[in-house]
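It is worth pausing here to work through a concrete case rather than discussing structure prediction in the abstract. The textbook approach is simple: state the sequence, then state the predicted structure, then interpret. We follow exactly that order.
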Amino acid sequence: MTDTGPRGAYHGVDWDALPYGGDLYGELHLADSAPPPAEPAPAPSWLAQAFPGLAASAAGAITAAWLADHYHFPIILLGLLVGLSLNFLSGDARTHKGLDFAARTCLRWGIVVLGMQVTYAQIQALGVTPLAALLVVMAATLVAGLAGARLVGQSVYAGLLAGGATAICGASAALALYGVIGRQRLPQAQFALTLVGISLASAFAMTAYPMLAAELGLNDRQAGFLIGASIHDVAQAIGGGYAFSDAAGSAATIVKLARVALLAPLVAVTSLVMPGGDGAPRGWRAMLPPWFITAFIGVVAAHSLLPLPQPVVSAALTGSKAMLLLAVTATAMRTRLDLLLAMGWRAAVPVVTATLASFATALGLALALG
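Step two, the predicted structure:
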């Protein structure tokens, strides 16, 4: 048969002009000879996703520790400052998973391990009257923090954070309380400023309170109670006590560790009364303390029943400090500097009022104890 029409036409049909015309054999051949499609790459492991943020926060924490060791400056405050200086790294989304892990999980495990520093025997050794006086100091401090926040128009959560952290054990308590309060109720900028204020106040108190106790003519027992009941950070409270005398240092240590033991009840009560994210109570779950506070109580109980060797206790303290420092550094790295600068002087007022109330109440009760 012959073509009588245009080129490629057969029996009057122009196959080349058809919209879907093609070389079917050629397409089948190409399909058979093409390499198989590549399998999708496996998703990166959790560690690979978290590594950039963890590495950044670890580098900041190590830098803060080195500076604190060489220049004798509060390590938590240095962790905050170094973290804020590295804030630009959080602009990279790859760091978020690791920074969030350091700020939350490391914080909670740091609180748990801190329980190895306390036993119920230490609290019993304090005695009923000093323990009752210590509870009065803590209550006055908490109320002063709430009042200071109200005075300058800050939220009740800002007052609770400042008062609770000052009443218990400084930065460690602030981290635990913020874990319950949450960033949806209190901005990270307010939390960072509270940590800065607490760290500065504690550093000042460690230097000033022993000198004030000596000027006021307090005896070792009175000075130990004053210093242990009013200085925020554990190490600085103990250091301030021993700066006065060895006997005052021993008394300050017992008083301060009793305050640390009361961290669990404070956080548990806070979680109980804290409303849910929509303003409604969280139901039966509100009756349960956070898991890390339950674990903290369990560690204290275990340490009370089966005392650990001192090297293990010392290693646990170092580990707890390292995890808390990592959490503080990561939190500072995730804090927006523009919001931090916009907070103004009012953000520091709850810490100031809580610190003054803590010192004044502890001094009055120390004089009364005789």
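Step three, interpretation. The mean pLDDT is 80. The first helix runs from residue 24 to 33.
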